[in-house]
Amino acid sequence: MNPARTVLAAGCVLWRRSPWGDGGLEICLVHRPKYDDWSLPKGKLKPGEDPLAGALREVLEETGHMCAPGARLPSVHYVDGQGRPKVVDYWAAEASAGSFVPGDEVDRLLWLPPAAARLRLTQDRDRHLVDALLDALHRS
Question: Quick one: fold of 7-139?
């Protein structure tokens, strides 16, 4: 992997307790119309940007929610659609104030229980992050 060509990105597995009274865990997924996929909120880092700061910025931009970062989750490594190596650093993050406004980059947002979130995620590489979140929350 050529580090000079590697695309650096960051994101969060954004979670909340269900507002419907049962207190169950819900995970935020975003739909990106450009790719017609369901993903976790993430995006490319700006030059020199701290990965955690970039992850929190991307969550706010894509979901409209502020969040409190928690445990560091595994990084994901893959080759992007342009053939470049890409590394995405992830954190667990609990959603706080905010509300979603559809846009060009993200047009839909879903809050789903973990099992349903795993099924809805388009990329297999994102599914293990749901498990990593559950492990991190169980340890805390």
Answer: Nucleoside Triphosphate Pyrophosphohydrolase (3.90.79)
